[in-house]
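Q: I have 268 residues here and want to know how they pack in 3D. Can you give me a structure?
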Amino acid sequence: MKVSIITATYNSQYHIADCLQSVAQQDYSNIEHIVIDGGSTDKTIEIVKSFSTVSRYISEADNGIYHALNKGIKLSNGDLIGFVHSDDMLAANDIISKIVDAFDNKAPILSPLRSHSFSKKESKDTKVDGVYGNLVFVDPENTKKVVRNWISTSFDRRQVKRGWMPPHPALFLRRDVYKKHGPFDISFKIAGDYDFMLRIMLDKNINLRLLPETVVKMRKGGVSTGNFRALCSKKAEDLRALRKNGFTFPLPILLMKNFNKLPQLWKK
């Protein structure tokens, strides 16, 4: 099974090497790594060129991160698609192997809350459309220091109305999911991933599976986790995404979504 990993960059010279190295060190060999650069003016592209494991890259002006991700999806040809942003890193050298095994149902994957990671209506023979795991936020200058821990739980579609969602950087999906529900809506600047995930999580024909492992390490301080203004913009876009996807009363869902994140601050 071929895995396409897409990395969006823009003037990322200080952290891009960590991202690229985390993909290059994977023990799974059938990986296509595509870098979509927004026309960097620093040494980002010079660093990208130094990695032979980068399958393809382009550097040109774009209309934001979701435009870049859409371009990456179009260029990719893997069976599975995931994103590792320029400030992020895959958490372990065998994480892609574990993700592929989860899609293939080669081994039982235990959930911290249930005896298995499928719902009662599913079985080991159920086609897995997506696999997601945990995410840790790390100190920007010391990536060994965890400052926030997003521990995912088993997929339960009913929980979407209670503000539940998996971490998008830790989510890998089959290509046909993007054919059915993509592309990302580029009118969003911060919450395009939330809008997209609402679409797939509300689709009763899609099965998502939990891999109870840390998939991605994310440097804290990105577009959606940065200053107060960015957080306010994110909440406004979250509300718009909920309304767009048919939620008549989105504010309680958003409040529960934010409340659900509080345990991440002390589960380190």
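Q: Anything worth noting?
A: The longest helix spans residues 228-244. The longest strand covers residues 208-219.
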